[in-house]
Amino acid sequence: MLFNQLGLTTELLRAVQNQGYETATPVQHKAIPLILEGRDILAGAQTGTGKTAGFTLPLLQHLQKNNVSSRRVRALILTPTRELAAQVHESVQNYGRHLDFRSMEIYGGVNSKPQINRLRKGVDIIVATPGRLLDHIQQRNVNLSGVEMLVLDEADRMLDMGFIRDIRKIVAELPKQRQSLLFSATFSNEIPKLASDFLIDPIEVQVSAPNSTVDLVEQSVYPVDKRRKRELLSELIGKENWQQVLVFTRTKHGANRLAEQLSGDGIQSVAIHGNKSQAARTKALASFKMGKVRVLVATDIAARGLDIDKLPHVVNFELPHVSEDYVHRIGRTARAGREGQAVSLVCIDEKKLLADIENLLKTKIEKILMPGYEIDPRIKAEPIVQGRQQRSKRPQGGGNNAWRGKPGGSRGGKSNSRGGKPNARGPQRKQASGGRRGG
After folding, report:
1. What is the third-level CATH fold of 3-206?
2. Contact at 8 Å (CB) between 69 and 16?
3. What is the dihedral of CA 384, 81, 188, 46, to 10 degrees?
4. Torsion of the alpha carbons at 132, 135, 141 and 146, rounded to the nearest 10
5. Between these two residues, 411 and 115, which has the higher pLDDT value?
6. Which of 54, 140, 359, 420 is the most buried (most CB within 10 A)?
7. Per residue in 173-194, pLDDT tens?
8. pTM metric for this prediction
C-alpha cells in the first residue's frame, strides 16, 4: 500500500518522500489508520519492519489536527535505552520537519541542565527513558497533565530492565483520557497484562508470528569450545573479509575484553555497554557507522536501539539468557528489505539456550562444523551465571552429546533457518522504517 492511501496529511507525505520511502510496510498500513481513528493498539512486528514510523506518523498527524499554540507536552514516547530514544527522536524530527512542533529526547548519562532549560522553554513531544524522565517529574521540571498520546516502544524490554515501577509512576502523572499505543517486536507473557493496565479496549495488530525473525536473515550456528570462540571469530572476520560486524556478549566485562582481544588480532574494535558514558557510546556508534571501526562489541543494551544502515553481519559471541533477546539482536541486520547474516558461536554450556531459541522460533538453526575447531568431547557443560535482570531462572548446561551439523569452510553456506518461513523477498521499492532506525 502506498503512503498516500493511508490518510496522511500533505506535510507528512512530503516528509516520507524526503526520506525516500514509497510503500508502507505491513505494520504501517495496518496500524496507521487505526491510530488515526483514535484507537488504542497493541502492535507486534518483527524488528526492522518500520514500527517507529508506524506510530510516529499518526502521532504527528494527531498533534497537527488538534494544534494548540501553547508549548505543553502533548505526546510522550517511552523507550528502554538511550540509543533507542535518540533514534526515535530522530524519526520524530525527520517526519515532523514540515510541522511546527518542538520535540526533545530525555535520558540519563548526560548533564540534566540542558534538558531542564529546554523543558522550561516548552516542548510538544518528549522521547524518554523512564528513569531520567521520572527524575524530572519528581523535581517538577516537567508537567505531563496535558499528554494526549502515550507510546510504549519495545515494552517487553522495559519490563526486562525493571522499569515497570517507573512506568507506572509516570503513567500516574498522565490524564486518564488519552490515546495509548504499545509496540514491540517480541511478546513475553507479561505484555498482555501490561496492555490491560495501560490501554483501553485495544486492537491487536500482529503482522507476523509472535517472536519470529525477518525472512532475509541468514542464520547459522558454529559449535565451538568456549576457549576458542575468539579465535574462530577472528578467523571468520578475516577470511570472509567482514568489514562491519556487530558482536553481542552477555556481560560488560566480556564486551571490553573481547574488543581488546580483537584489536590485538589486528581487527579494529570498540565496546559499547551501560557502564560507558553516553558520550563514549555515541562516539563508538558513530565510528562504527562511518567505518572507522570494523567491529562493535555490545551487550543487549544495543539490541533495542541500534540501526546501522545496511549492517551485513551480526554475531552472537555468547547467546542471551532470554530467548526473545536473540530475535532483537539479529534484527539489527536485514532491515528495510535488505539481506543480512546472523552467526552464533555456541559452546557446550549454551546448548540449552540454543534449544530455547529454536523452540521460540519453531525451527532448527543450521549447525556448521568449522574444520580445525572440532568440539572436545572431554569438556563437560558448566552452569552459566545469570544477571540480575534476566527473566530465566533455569540452570543451563546439559549433556555432553556430540554436536551434529554439516562441515563448512570459512563461510559455511546458506541457512534454512528463516523463522520457519521460505526465502521470501520483499518488495523492490523502498519501504518506510522508523527514520533511519527502521523500527
Report:
1. Rossmann fold (3.40.50)
2. no
3. -110
4. 80
5. 115
6. 54
7. 999 999 999 988 777 777 788 8
8. 0.65
Distance CA 11, CA 8 (A): 8
CATH match of 217-407 with 3.40.50.300: yes
For residues 322 and 160, the answer to whether their CB atoms sit within 8 Å is yes
217-407 shares the fold of 3-206: yes
Cβ neighbours around 426 below 10 Å, total = 17
pLDDT of residue 14: 95
Determine the Cα–Cα distance for residues 135 and 340; give it in Å rounded to an integer.
39
CA 70/CA 209 separation, integer angstroms: 43
Neighbours of 330 (CB within 10 A): 29
Closest CA to 325 of 308, 349, 305, 295: 305
> Hey, is 76 helix, strand or coil?
strand
Distance CA 127, CA 88 (A): 7
What's the pLDDT tens digit per position in 42-79?
998 766 678 899 999 999 999 998 776 567 999 999 99
| CA of residue 302 relative to chain centroid, distance | 7
Domain locations along the chain: 3-206, 217-407
Across-strand partners of 2?
A: 23
Closest by Cα among 416, 413, 29 to 207: 29
**What grid cell was written down for 182?**
504499545
Spell out a b/e string for 290-324, using b for 16 or more CB atoms within 10 Å of the CB, else e: eeebbbbbbbbbbbbbbbbeebbbbbbbbbbbbbb
C-alpha cell at 350: 549454551
Cα distance between the two ends of the chain: 18
Percent of the chain with pLDDT over 70: 81
